[in-house]
Amino acid sequence: MIDLRSDTVTKLTDRMRQKMYEAEVGDDVYRDDPTMRKLEELAADMLGKEEALFVTSGTQGNQIAVLVHCSLGQEIILEEGSHIFRYEGGATSAFAGIQPFPIKGERGSMNALDIEAAIRGSDIHEAETGLICLENTHNRAGGTVTTPESMKEIYEVAKRHHLPVHLDGARLMNAAVALKRPMTDFTQYVTTVQICLSKGLGAPVGSIIAGSSEFIAKARKWRKRLGGGLRQSGVLAAPGIIALTEMVDRLDEDHQHAKWLAEQIHALPQLRVAFEVETNIVMMDVSETGLTSKQFVELLKENGVLANPFAPTIVRLVTHYDVSRVDIEQTADVLRLLVSEKIGK
Ligand SMILES: *Cc1c(COP(=O)(O)O)cnc(C)c1O
Predict the structure, then answer these.
(1) Could you tell me which CATH class the domain 250-343 is placed in?
(2) In this structure, which of 123, 192, 225, 312 has its CB flanked by the most CB atoms within 10 Å?
């Protein structure tokens, strides 16, 4: 099976397994784990923040950020297709007691003026804005990149209104590689950031959140409250170190694969690419085949390709470390076959 459902399916590399085996460990709740400390220092450095903290997942990292930044009854401004709004089980309401204020972006990027217009709280009828959340790359918009320049405009609005900005940077590394710029070019314009180690970077488990020392001290406590204080977690930090030091630059290969696949899709009359590909996500619109995305995904599966039915007529294909050029060529062959034989002209 060629698994294009997500970059979360990547399995850890042999080098990661080796480093897990060799990792020096201690009780990280007592902050005795040297490998975890090393990962957190490295991540803070790469993200240009005072401190960083390992968390069990991207969702946990985002939710800890919301919990630290906001208080009960506040509102967070975010993009209407964002992961925090759509795919975190309503956690912002369930845990932090805040309500989302979604606004529509353009290819996943929100406009600074729209954000400024959405800031509320001066009137007694209104919830008070507590946080602005960005997502880069934007998953639902097809792995699209928001430039540091756009982020800067938003950051300036936030500063004017004394609001923190959190970046859901689950795939920030993809954005950095796509623009050939360091991650700090992006993170200089946010208060806090979350990045995933277990997506395209191939680590088995975990995310990082980063921000000021004061933020991380509060985040550490929320992590403990949520049951995310881990003990000999150096075994998870060791592959995380490999992820950050050896697996970032190669994301370019995934981007090339996605772009090539999009070109093949583009050449087929019944299929369309919903968003121009910028990183490792291809959103394929199957509406002109007369099939739903679920039906199309079933056909793909019968032909050895796994994909995600993302919206009623959109199939998501994600390239990653465990997908080779040959796999991508085979996927294109399968698409051509489906379109010409099974679906008709
Ligand atoms: C994957 C992802 C997350 C976090 O997912 P987890 O499965 O909880 O690690 C957060 N935001 C975005 C944009 C993502 O793609």
Answers:
(1) alpha beta
(2) 192
